[in-house]
Amino acid sequence: MVRPATGGMRKHVSILTRGLDPARFVSTLFAPATVVLDPGCEFIPHRPLVISARASLASDLKAILNLSSMLCSETDIVHAHGLRGAWIGVLAARKAGIPALFTAHNLVPHLNPLALFCMRMVGKSSDRIVAVSHAVAASLVKAGVQPDRVVVIPNGIDVDAFMIDAGDTCLRTELAIASNARVIVAVGRLAPEKGFDVLIRAYSVLRRLTPSIELLIVGSGPSESQLKRLAADLAPNTRFVGAVTKVAPYLHLADVVAIPSFAEGQGIVALEAMACRKPIVASRVGGLVETIRDLQSGLLVLPGSPEALADALTTVLADERMRVAFGKKGFEVVESEYSAAKMIRAIEEEYLRLAW
Hints:
- There is one protein chain.
- The chain is an alpha/beta fold and 356 residues long.
- The protein contains 14 helices and twelve strands.
- It has helices at 8-19, 57-70, 82-96, 113-125, 134-142, 171-174, 196-209, 224-234, 248-253, 268-275, 288-291, 306-317, 320-337, 340-355, and strands at 29-31, 46-48, 78-81, 100-104, 128-131, 150-152, 182-187, 213-218, 239-242, 256-259, 280-283, 298-301.
- The strands form three sheets. It has a six-stranded parallel β-sheet, with helices on both faces. Strands 3-4-5-6 form a four-stranded parallel β-sheet, covered by helices on one side.
- The longest helix has 18 residues, at 320-337.
């Protein structure tokens, strides 16, 4: 069960549902009709469930009751995603007498007393809570969730899907990027917490020093117009690519991948960059501290500081040996610790513990 989602949560659900052992598990997606998973998930049955964009006692209660009635006798377990999905999915499962777990994809924010009460209620009602990083797990415990209910299972990706193919090499020509230009790529939802405004300010500093540096921002979101206005004022050469179906070609084009987030549960983009053997410069926040090995696969900097971000990007762009070494280490880490297969097997074990 999942609320409307983009970015990391949708990728996680898509990878998980595609990869579950079909001999043991059959998935059904309960989500609003507008929710579309990634390519390859078309075979998964989708039962439309109306969920309001904002929390509302009346509409949420209706969604809980509707979902509970939709959970047929053949449903053995409910897996909800995100805190809002958990609020509806876990409580519906409880009403239907079905075991439930949920995955917390993001750090738990500061909550008002009512939201904190709801968070603790969901925590007590869940048989298991999966956190995608130790940072997310710590934020759950701080919000009042019992530590013994939480297990850390990091996101995993299909590393092979990020191998370069013949089509990837044409992108530089297609975008008319000079052969001698250094390229910074940032990927994500264009929202305030992702810190793309900080990156644009850092890029404006870099361009004054080295005009041949290019910045590509891949993604869309509510801050897009604001970011484009900021770029027009400070760094007109910023390229907004928009949403794309495949990020691998853009990551392969990068000399360095920037992740300037103010908060990050784990950072799937970091995993994808590592799978492409790319060095990373990222904020020292949340799960990024666990995913990226500072001074080994990337550089971690103070969040919200254009100056610190610009300095780190300059350091990486100026040192080819560092870029190669960081890329090599990142690939080793993602291949051994963050594969889709490893994530899926760990979640399957949780299903088997709870439902059988």
